[in-house]
Give the backbone structure.
Amino acid sequence: MATLRQKALMKVQGRPKVAAVAPSLKISDYFGSQVFGLKEMQETLASPVFKKVSTAIEKGTKIDMSTADEVATAVKSWALGKGATHYTHWFQPLTGSTAEKHDTFFDAMSGMEKFKGSALVQQEPDASSFPSGGIRTTFEARGYTAWDPSSPIFIFDQTLCIPTIFVSFTGEALDFKTPLIRSTESINNAAVDICQYFDRNVKKVTPSLGVEQEYFVIDRALYATRPDLVMAGRTVFGHNPARGQQLDDHYFGSIPSRVKEYMKDFEIEALKLGIPVSTRHNEVAPGQFEVAPLFEDINKATDHNLLLMDVMEKVAEKHGLKVLFHEKPFAGLNGSGKHNNWSLITDTGVNLFQPSNSARENLQFLCFLVATIKAVYKNADLLRASIASAGNDFRLGANEAPPAIISIFLGSTLTGILDELEKNGNIKIEKGDNMYMKLGISKIPEIILDNTDRNRTSPFAFTGNKFEFRAVGSSANPAGPMTALNVIVADVLKELKKDIDKEIDSGKEKKLAIVDVLRKYIKESKKIRFEGDGYSEEWEKEAEKRGLSNLKSTAESLDVLLSKQVTDLYKRHNVLNEKELHARHEIRLENYVMKVQIESRVMGDLALNHIIPTAILYQNKLIVNANGLKGLGLDHRAAIDTIEEISKHIEALKSNVSNMTEARKRVNKVEDITEKAKLYSSDVKDAYFDKIRYAVDKLELVVDDEYWPLVKYREMLFLK
Ligand code: ADP
Ligand code: MG
């Protein structure tokens, strides 16, 4: 009888390729066709109503109920015209993905399709099952979602989706979007203040975000046969294929044709939703790929990233594929990240991280650059915590992965400029001197963009006109790390402004005051800068000497969220109060515990129910064989050796699985969640996962391929 694995492999053989069909050859014909954006509003709303809404979007002001009613009516007829039957508030609870609860437009009482302003503006999802870290139980039983007009309404799967925030009735944030929006305001205020030194026309600064999304794709039938992938999102067992990524031939190689059709197809759907997907390519590991849209304002870009992941999941079904967003689905191969490209852009159209031909603008550029460096230096642990998750632990800080040390890469040009600035600390600049020349900052221009060296090993790199936070995990909601980044930079920009003004007040010329403060900041935060190989062992040692943190696991890294430094920081910027932070801390630890618990159970089940029985079956066959050889008076040592080897691994498996189960029982009794998470990390995961995996992967090499129950790496990773 064929095993599940063999049946699945046959299914893959016979699977037809699904071709992607675009509605038109020209993307402009269908880009944003499923979005109720400004253009659609302008076309369908009376002009005073449109004016109110666009002001609300721009300035974040409140929309009154009569305006909301008008918008609701317009959006309803637009949506019905596009075939939508339902509507939902679309929000981002702390579970990580997005949530929705669909209501039909059809009102049976009146026999008509209905949609009122009140339904657009606010809803009360029955949300008691969303994590709140105790907030809802202690304060208010209910939470509500409220329309975020700054992110456009769209239709997905015949459902009108209204992007919303999710808060408790007492106003505490229960989602990712609320603090992101608050942090955007905070950095806007702080950045505008700094811009005033250089250009009084700047009234608004918006963080922008471009998300490079990495992912793996495997055949859906193969996915279905791996309980570990289904339950935990990653393979807990599997020996490396003979050909992994050593050859480096997958990267930028030609895309396998089934995957190419899949990519084209999800891009079409994404483009209809107004997601400006622009690049696609293979990634380093076999079966790994990347998609990146053009950058947008941070709130929209975040919504679009989450929506894109949804779209990718749905479209994959049609192609008989499964997309994996886990940070490390396959041991021994590259993990998947979500590079968050971040910059600050003014309403006058200037990217504040873009060096220019004008020396004056370069001084402004240096303010933002140096402030960011200092912010990362001061708050490296918070940034580390912002990317911590059970999945990302396998990608950062594990034995085969880069360390979890936060550092900044600037490239040689900028490093030279900052070193120069620091070194020339004592240059006396007289009035009338060309200060920019003397400090070497008149020549930042052109050099940089064409000259950005690439350092792929840095967790946080300056890449010409933006910072790239690369340590973010592929499955993460970008809002978490981006909120942290906005807040820490806002905080240092505020400090910078205060320090500069103090110098100016004491009689220093403005430019000199700025340069002096920057010099001080450069010196203070130098330790966070690292240009070398971030994956090397020397760096771990060097970082330790520098006093930089190397927090290897989620359990260790989240404590900082309760520190005075972080609670004060988030409070100062009205982003999260102490209660909200505590709740988040708790939810993330609970989530971590749950994930490790599931993995541990899956491992135990697979080992006991799949691996050991198979190994014994094969061993019995070998015993018969050995006896036969012996009966014939032939040499049967080879068979005996293999029998013994199998026994050894089975013994190891049995005892480790049973000890792990005991450990889990012990740890489950621990009440304190911080303690529990730490114990899950050390006493369950670190103590047993590798040992159990080692035995299983060895058995995979020994046991007859015919018998092996789990689809192997080489079968999953090389799609045609
Ligand atoms: P790579 O890092 O692979 O060289 P790109 O330069 O193409 O990639 O950019 C990667 C991502 O960064 C894209 O989503 C792009 O739109 C985005 N990006 C480019 N400029 C900015 C910017 N000023 N702010 C934020 N994101 C940006
Ligand atoms: Mg990049």
About this structure: The CA atoms of residues 193 and 466 lie 20 Å apart. The longest strand covers residues 205-219. The pocket of adenosine-5'-diphosphate (ligand 1) is lined by residues 208-210, 212, 292-295, 341-343, 351, 463, 465-466 (CB under 6 Å). The chain is about 50% helix and 10% strand.
